[in-house]
Design goal:
The chain is of the alpha+beta class. The protein has ten helices and 39 strands. Helix 1 packs antiparallel against helix 2. The two termini are 29 Å apart.
């Protein structure tokens, strides 16, 4: 076994002339998130940027143009909320990425308080995993969701100067959805029925009493999901925007929680549809995702007219309607780096400094699989023809999907001469409820069937060299990598797994409470109740069959894919002198530090170069 330390000579370290290679520039280039803005002070915004080399929160006064770094922690900060009055920045303070901590707050202008620049935002609440947050317009009220192994899910109303009041508690996962515009109603998403993939809704008063319930059932069992999209932005308005799955995909409807009336919008769009209110409550900003691309629309509630909001071809990963009627959105494509644009034609945020190089566009491939047509996205170095060394880069989630959006990791592989294939396997979102919900009981094995079908296409089409196939991914993608190396040992020349599930039983016992609930839903019970399913889905079961060299990176504070279960898998590899390397780093489920991210990609590229060979990097 080799313990990697990040000091790597060779092609992956630098361009041939000693300059910074393009793949590294993509990670170092300043990036920003879509700015959040204060409802009652829209000139005040909050966004995330890596401008200092670590992802942190920034306050932005649009009137003066001033931008101020609000947080500064060794391992970075991305979880933050701006209060509706624009006076306070709330941010989640955990320990080295372990996701277990408390909410703190600071004034938007950075002026100190009696307790210093940052103070506990909800004194009296002990550290926990976060379970949603909604801040009231009165400047002193917040609804705080929490989860712990001991208490399950709890929700509190916290008011400045008063002890927090518990209004909800349950063993199953639950979280805060939204707080009504006037603070009189609280929407909660919960899974008291035991299905963590499909939430039901409950609306409470601030005293904890129930106003309304909504769940979607088939045959007496909750099998369709609901999600809170937000209360109407008008005082006294009891309409709640809700996402539902009644026609086999995500769509919005309006639910009046006072009368029970449901208004089905029945939008004529083929893919999954999300929505948020326009600030005056007259319409909805529609986000539509279909076959790995996305676009925006405006729906007028009075006329029922649906009109497009112009955006370039590619993917919109976030959008918000401003009080002046313009829409700001974060856009990218596989070939073009992300940028925050406005329908006014302006670039909203253009951070100074190094600009990210682009990459090559994706090609769409549809492959017949055992559960239906599988969508894959393919990138390959410009001007090349197969067969090429090929990386199957598997997305995490699993309820997520790869899209035509910019990603520095795949672009780095392409720079080094590899084709990259990304597979939206069964379990992925964006292809209808049945495709997502197919991932049950035979967890991991179902996804690998789809990956295998695309692998066969890649070889048969002449794209991929069958002797130089790399399986890689992070989180759930890392899990599928280790499972695939053991369950399909002759299919892969190399495996690279980041923050993976490696020993499913130990992972279940060590992971955060919300993920335990998800695993019980996916596998139909606990390891003690369905041991055969956990065994069949665990990479540890197949570890002795692994033939390919294995590289694993893991965060020692990871609450999602904890380190102990990774060590169990590594010990089994070491016991039979299997070729493998392990890199452990001081963070949680991934790193928010740019240098650390670059180090990890460098280690992965070098591992592939040494064990697969035949790579001729160009333009790096």
């Amino acid at each position: 076994m080799t313990e990697s330390n990040g000091s790597i000579p060779g092609k992956a370290a630098a361009a041939q002339d000693g300059s910074t290679p393009d793949w590294e520039k993509r990670f170092r280039a300043p990036r920003v998130s879509l700015p959040d803005w204060a409802e009652d002070a829209p000139h005040r915004s909050l966004f995330v940027s890596n401008a200092t080399g670590t992802y942190e929160l920034y306050a932005w006064d649009r009137t003066t143009g001033e931008q101020r770094q609000a947080t500064d922690r060794a391992n970075g900060t991305t979880d933050g909320v701006l209060s509706p009055d624009g006076e306070w920045i709330w941010w989640f303070d955990d320990k080295d990425g372990d996701e277990f901590g408390i909410w703190r707050r600071q004034r938007f202008d950075g002026s100190g308080t009696s307790d210093g620049p940052d103070e506990p935002a909800a004194p009296g609440l002990e550290p926990s995993y976060p379970g949603g947050l909604a801040i009231g317009r009165d400047g002193r009220t917040a609804v705080v969701g929490r989860s712990t192994d001991e208490d399950g899910s709890t929700i509190y109303v916290a008011r400045s100067g008063e002890a927090p009041v518990e209004i909800y508690r349950h063993r199953e996962s639950a979280g805060v959805g939204d707080l009504a515009h006037d603070g009189s109603l609280i929407a909660v998403e919960h899974t008291e029925h035991g299905d963590a993939m499909h939430s039901a809704l409950r609306v409470l008063r601030p005293d904890g009493s129930t106003v309304a319930e909504l769940d979607d059932t088939e045959g007496g069992t909750v099998e369709l999901g609901l999600e809170v999209l937000g209360f109407a932005p008008v005082d006294g308005d009891t309409r709640l925007l809700v996402g539902h799955q009644r026609r086999g995909r995500w769509e919005p409807m309006v639910w009046d929680v006072a009368t029970g009336e449901e208004t089905d919008l029945a939008l004529d769009l083929p893919g999954d549809v999300g929505a948020e209110w326009y600030p005056d409550g007259s319409g909805l900003l529609i986000a539509h995702s279909f076959e790995a691309r996305s676009d925006l629309w405006r729906y007028d509630l009075a006329s029922h007219e649906l009109t497009p909001v112009p955006t370039p071809a590619g993917s919109v990963s976030g959008a918000t309607a401003r009080p002046d009627g313009t829409v700001e959105y974060l856009w990218s494509s596989a070939a073009e780096p992300s940028v925050v644009r406005s329908t006014s034609g302006a670039v909203v945020l253009d951070p100074p400094g190094l600009k990210s190089p682009g990459s090559v566009p994706v090609e769409d491939v549809w492959v017949e699989g055992p559960g239906g047509r599988i969508h894959a996205l393919v990138q390959k170095p410009a001007g090349t023809s197969g067969p090429l060394p090929t990386v199957f880069d598997i997305h995490g989630g699993p309820t997520w999907h790869d899209s035509d959006s910019f990603a520095a990791g795949p672009a780095a592989w392409v720079d080094h001469g590899y084709a990259v294939v990304r597979v939206n396997y069964r379990g992925s979102t964006g292809y209808g409820r049945e495709w997502t919900d197919a991932l049950k009981h035979r967890v991991g094995l179902i996804e690998l069937e789809d990956i295998a079908a695309v692998r066969e296409w890649a070889v048969a089409s002449g794209l991929a060299d069958p002797d130089r196939l790399i399986l890689t991914g992070g989180s759930w993608g890392g899990y599928l990598t280790l499972l695939g190396l053991g369950a399909q040992p002759d299919a892969w020349a190399l495996g690279i797994a980041a923050v993976p599930v490696a020993d499913y039983v130990t992972a279940y016992h060590d992971e955060m409470e919300a993920l335990k609930a998800m695993d019980r839903t996916l596998l139909g019970g606990t390891p003690e109740e369905v041991p055969e399913r956990f065994e069949a889905s665990s990479p540890l079961t197949y570890v002795d069959a692994v033939k390919a060299p294995v590289y694993i990176s893991a965060g020692v504070n990871d609450p999602r894919c904890p380190i102990r279960q990774v060590e169990n898998y590594v010990d089994r590899l070491a016991a039979r002198d299997a070729v493998h390397e392990v890199y452990r780093y001081e963070a949680g489920h991934g790193s928010l530090v740019v240098d650390e991210r670059i180090k990890q990609v460098r280690l992965e590229l070098d591992f592939a170069e040494r064990h697969v060979g035949g790579i001729s990097p160009s333009g790096v």
